[in-house]
Amino acid sequence: MIALIRSETTKLLTTKATWILALVTVLGTLPMAWTNSASSADLPADSELLFSLVPIPPEYQGFEMAGFGYVLIVALAALWSGSEYGSGKQIRTTLLATPKRLRVFVVKAVLLALVVALIALVTMTGTIIITHAAANTGIDPWALTPAIWANLGGVTLAWTLTALIAFAVGTIARTAILPLILIVPLVIGVGDFLAGFWPGAKFLPTTAGAAMFNDPASGTFLDPAMGALVQAGWAIVLLVAAGVAFTRRDL
């Protein structure tokens, strides 16, 4: 088991795409957070130039920047699940070295979850600190409130569960393409848009996840706890299906 963890960790961390996507997520989001906050610092709370015409409570400000990294996290998960099924069929080598397929699947999923959670926490904590430092929100950026930390936990969990969902879809399809086609439109706002006029869209995986770091008073999202349960349910069902496919299907 230790050898498997070591080999999969090496595989994930020596892949250029992992570092490129992680760095672009962090280094791309933070400057945008500063630009967005600094440019709106002197505007009235109901200005039409702001992200929302309705004033956003301070504990939810800055979380709109999660969308950029969300796309890159889905790309990372899709590549991690589908890259070994390319023309080289690296997955055959992996399973020859470790015939116990379920262990391989679980280790891959756990490693992805840990990496994505770290990226999410670093990216969004920096984003929120910058937001409150650049804008007149009344929040000390170096002493974030418990409500803001709860939302940071929510966005970290949402990114992680979304990555696991993309990983499961990629494993089932044995390609990185399908999770990109299915999930990227949802994370760039299609799910939230649909939820504006169709209540059933609140139960889509990414929209349910967004409930964990968006203002429930907007009426667009589920209660945060319900959102977490719904998105976790999506992730568990898809991971079980992917695990079954991974362990029983011929290569």
TrEMBL record:
Keywords assigned by UniProt, alphabetized: Membrane, Transmembrane, Transmembrane helix
Spans through the membrane: 64-83, 104-135, 147-169, 176-198, 225-246
Entry protein name: ABC-2 family transporter
Matches recorded under Pfam families: ABC2_membrane_4
Source species: Microbacterium saperdae
Signal peptide: none
